[in-house]
């Protein structure tokens, strides 16, 4: 499997993880892991910023796939397979138009920024 195929699979798996997050048959620990994974994938702020040579991209190449792998292992196989099938339809016509799913992540980073500014101001 080449890099392009792996990136497409990772994108589809993140969509499937998001769908599994909303399923009642997904265990609580898997929902927590799924929430962290989706938030990290959508977050504009990385653990290691991309402008740091090598380490910035190594962060994206290691942490996100590890989070996805861990989350997939926590979700029951039957639930994840149905979510993976449903996720294929999400990307059929390009990117989904539901950009408002990013609001919780943006809100979280705004709140963290406010708390940091208040703490050091």
Q: How would you sum up this structure, described in words?
A:
The chain is built from 5 helices and no strands. It has helices at 3-21, 28-42, 55-74, 77-90, 103-120. The model has no long low-confidence stretch (mean pLDDT 82). It has one domain. The radius of gyration is 16 Å and the shape is globular. Helix 1 crosses helix 2 (28-42) and helix 2 (28-42) runs antiparallel to helix 3. With 121 residues, it is mainly alpha-helical. Helix content is 71%, strand content 0%.
Mean pLDDT: 82
Low-confidence parts, pLDDT < 50 over ≥5 residues? none
Q: How would the global form be characterised?
A: globular
Q: Strand percentage, roughly?
A: under 5%
Helices and strands: which structural class? mainly alpha
Task: Describe the main β-sheet briefly.
Answer: none
Q: Helix-strand pattern, N to C? A: HHHHH
- Put simply, the count of helices is 5
* Rounded radius of gyration (Å): 16 Å
Per DSSP E runs of 2 or more residues, the count of β-strands stands at 0
Q: Into which percent range does the helicity of residues fall?
A: over 70%
| Number of domain modules | 1
First-last Cα distance:
50 Å
Features:
121 residues, mainly alpha, 71% helix, globular
Give the gist of this structure.
This protein is mainly alpha-helical and about 120 residues long. It is about 70% helix and about 0% strand.
Sequence-ordered SSE layout with sheet pairings:
Elements: H1 3-21, H2 28-42, H3 55-74, H4 77-90, H5 103-120
Helix pairs in contact: 1-2, 1-3, 1-4, 2-3
């Amino acid at each position: 499997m080449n890099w392009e195929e792996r990136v497409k699979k990772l994108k589809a798996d993140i969509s499937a993880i998001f769908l599994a997050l909303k399923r009642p048959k997904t265990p609580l620990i898997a929902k927590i892991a799924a929430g962290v994974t989706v938030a990290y994938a959508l977050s504009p702020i990385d653990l290691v910023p991309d402008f740091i040579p090598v380490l910035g991209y190594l962060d994206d190449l290691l942490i996100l796939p590890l989070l996805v792998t861990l989350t997939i292992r926590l979700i029951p196989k039957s639930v994840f397979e149905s979510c993976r099938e449903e996720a294929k339809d999400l990307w059929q016509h390009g990117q989904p138009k539901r950009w408002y799913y990013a609001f919780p992540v943006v809100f979280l980073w705004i709140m963290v920024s406010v708390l940091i500014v208040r703490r050091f101001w």
